[in-house]
Amino acid sequence: MDLIRILCAIFLPPLGVFLQVGFGLDFWINILLTCLGYIPGIVHAVWVIARK
C-alpha cells in the first residue's frame, strides 16, 4: 500500500498525503507547498508517507 501512496505522492502530492493522514494539518501544509512549487510538495508528501 505504501508503494501506491508514494506513486500518488509523485503525481499528485496532496492525494498521497490525504491517503496517509486524511484532512489533517499535514494535508493543508502539502497543499500550500504544492502551490508554491511542485517539488517541495513531492518532498513533503514522501516524507509524510515514510514517517508513518
From TrEMBL:
<keyword id="KW-0812">Transmembrane</keyword>
<feature type="transmembrane region" description="Helical">
    <location>
        <begin position="7"/>
        <end position="25"/>
    </location>
</feature>
<keyword id="KW-0472">Membrane</keyword>
<keyword id="KW-1133">Transmembrane helix</keyword>
<dbReference type="InterPro" id="IPR000612">
    <property type="entry name" value="PMP3"/>
</dbReference>
<dbReference type="Pfam" id="PF01679">
    <property type="entry name" value="Pmp3"/>
</dbReference>
<comment type="similarity">
    <text>Belongs to the UPF0057 (PMP3) family.</text>
</comment>
<protein>
    <submittedName>
        <fullName>YqaE/Pmp3 family membrane protein</fullName>
    </submittedName>
</protein>
<dbReference type="GO" id="GO:0016020">
    <property type="term" value="C:membrane"/>
</dbReference>
<feature type="transmembrane region" description="Helical">
    <location>
        <begin position="31"/>
        <end position="50"/>
    </location>
</feature>
